[in-house]
Every structure is written in C-alpha cells, then in structure tokens.
Amino acid sequence: MNREALSALAAQARADMAAMAYPARIWMPAPAEAGRHNVLVVGGGQSGLGVAFQLARDGVAGVSVIDKAPRGAEGPWLNYARMATLRTPKDLVGLECGLPSLSVRGWYAAAFGPDAWERIVRIPRAHWAAYLDWFRDTTAIPVRNGVELRRLEPQGDWIAADLAIDGRTSREYARRVVLAHGFENAGQWTLPEWAEALPERFRAHSNGPVDFDALKGKRVAVLGHGASAFDNALAALKAGAARVDLCFRRETLPEINPHRWAEFAGYLRHYPELPDATKWAIMRRFRLMDQPPTADGVNGCKAFANFAAHPGRPWTKLAVAGDAVRIDTPQGPLDADYLIFATGMRVDLSLRPELAAIEADIARWGDMHATDDPDPVLASWPYLGAGFEFTPKPGRNTPALSRIHQFGFAAGLSHGAQCASVSGHRHALPRLVAGITRGLFRDIEPGLIADLDGYDAREKLL
To answer: Which pTM does this prediction carry?
Structure first.
C-alpha cells in the first residue's frame, strides 16, 4: 500500500473539500453546555461516518459519533464479515459527497497503482475497511471509541442518552439521535428456538465470534444457504476442519438476486415516495425471492473434497451425544462436533435495551398498513418517516420519537432494501441528513426573525 500517495490524496481531498464548501457557515453551532450535542450518531462505521461528514458539510456543528468497538474494529468488516470481497459492484459512490478525491476508486488507485482498480471485480473486504479508516482521518470526523449506548429517553426537546464509558455510566443529551450501529440495530441475530438449549460450547452464530482454529480436525455442520453460511463453511474448511456439512431447507439455492435489480436511481431515490401497498408488495417479493450466496463462497467450498451441501435437509432436532451433537433431519441423522447457525436476524425493537423506554410507542408496519398479503416478519419492522425517524403508534402522543432516526436493515421497508447498505448511500444518506437538518431548523425557527433583525454585516458602497 503506497502510504505516500495516500497522504498526497488526503491533502488533495482536503483542498477539494475547502473549494466545494459553500455555504460554509455554521448555522447550528454546538451547544455551549458540556455533554450536550446537536446530533448523537451511534455507530462509527460506514453509515455513521457518512452522516457525520454530510452534516458537517451542511453547517451543523456539535455532532458526536460514538462506537463501542475499539478503533479499527467498527462495523463487520474485520469482525464477523468473512467474505473475500464486498457483494456490491465496485463503482460505489455516496460517502464522498461527489468529491472524486474522497472516493474509494481514488483511494484504491493511490494505494495500489492506477491500473489496480481495473484489475478488480469487487472491492476486497479488508481494503474497504482500510478505505473507511482513511476516510475518517481525511475528513477529520471525531469518533469516540469504546463508548456504548445503553438507553435513550426523551426529555422535552432533548433525547437523554445513557452511555457506558470506561466502565462507568454517563448521561448526555442530544437534539437528534441517529441509530447507525449495525445491521442488527433493530433486533438481534437469532437461533431457532429449538437450538437455544444447546450448550454454547457446541455452537455459534455466523454473525458472531467463531474460534475457527479450534475447529481443526472437527466435524462442522452449518445451517443456512446465504452468503454467511458459505463464508463460514469456507473459513472452517481453510482452518482444517475434518468435514463440513452445509444444510438448508430449500430444494435449490436461489439464483436471482433482487438486490441487483434494485440498483437504479429511480428506485434508490424515489422508493420512499411509493404508496405503502407498493412498498409492501416489493419487499414481500424480496423476501420470497431471497438472495443467493456469493459465487466466491460457493466455489471456494466446492473446491474442498471434505465439503458437502445438503439442499432440502432442514434440521428438526438436536441432541448432545458425549462430545458431539446428533442432528435429526428428514433424510436421517447427521453427527457433528460443532454447529454454526447462519439463520439471520430477528427484527424486534423490544430486544434492544437502548429502546426500552420508548419501543412500546414506536409504530410498526403492522400497526399502520392493512394488507391481504400478511407477513409477520415485515409487520414487525418500524414504520419510519421521510427522514428515517420513528413515528408513534396510532393514538400515542409521543412527538419526541421523531428526534430518533433509525438507519439500518429494518429501515428497508420504509426506505428501500438498499437504504443502509453501501450501494444505497448515495441517495439514502442525503435523505437522512435532510431529515435531521429539517428538524434542527424547526428547532431554531422561533429565533429566526430576531437573528435576521440582529444581522448587521454592512457592505459600505460609498
């Protein structure tokens, strides 16, 4: 990686930011009182960095970004993400606010040479993490690492946020809060109910920590057909697992990826304007069509003779047998030493401790949309406003909910399946930021006339 070229690119990016700064006036200065912020952004990964940068470009000071992970470990990229490359096409834009010198393409060319970009099909996962780290430094976004959100509670025109900092709890306040702390920020990764009783020494979720080195010589069974199932199976094979069996309920793997269909400007920009019935119908099809795993993951697993995929073979029962687990399936039992569940996540706001004080008032799609095509999963998703803000259930007088913006996977029904992913940032981040600044501007509306009357910057012409 060419550090000298990256430093030169960072200098160029800062010059470009200065040249394209108009209007540069800070119209929303930081609150004078310590521990108070205009915006508290929870999550210092790609979404958190993007919203903080665009707020700064729009003249909003007093933005605090927090992340519970240490520096460099924000987001999934160097944690539970185990794919070789990003799933999305490499021509990603959105974080850089239209400045080529801040783009991942510019970074890649500087880091690895001008022809390197043309040689890749997709961006390697570790390189994307390195780009985000460079982006954070270049844009001078201050992120407080090691700070975890514990609880949110509306208090008048402010949202009180209880934070865990260095083992102690601290209360801070923000006019607006953005929840951008991961794919699961509206629920949690889940196991099938019948698997929860299995002792933890025998199991892991694919989107959590897995000690792959300990799987050397072991028989590993994976449940799931998505990208994370094959990525984890491949990681176990590379670590020296004796055998890996991957089972899933479907008779065949899905072959059509609806997320690729959705990558056009009309959908990405205007999906939120669609009628609720159309949104529901689109997302129902997304769920029914599902998403195929990556070719890299599937082909990587198939290269190992000790790998086997078992379509149409769901797991029905688990039983510990000594140091192993017997898995009952319709095709007969399967024995394994360790199980990895690639079973996705459950959207359920009641599972988020930080929302305990407000989740009962938050509207879900099941509260707001009647349909002849029911789906209990989609019905549990939050029903968000135009700026990704929470809305109250019918009959609930809780206007403070609009001060909390949910920017994650579960925003997909309200704002489109790509909204919080890399490929949707070009259109979703400006929409989120506009929702935040709209609310902040309304906060200062009572003082606008006095501020205008007090404006005395004179232009002496004679």
So the answer is: 0.96
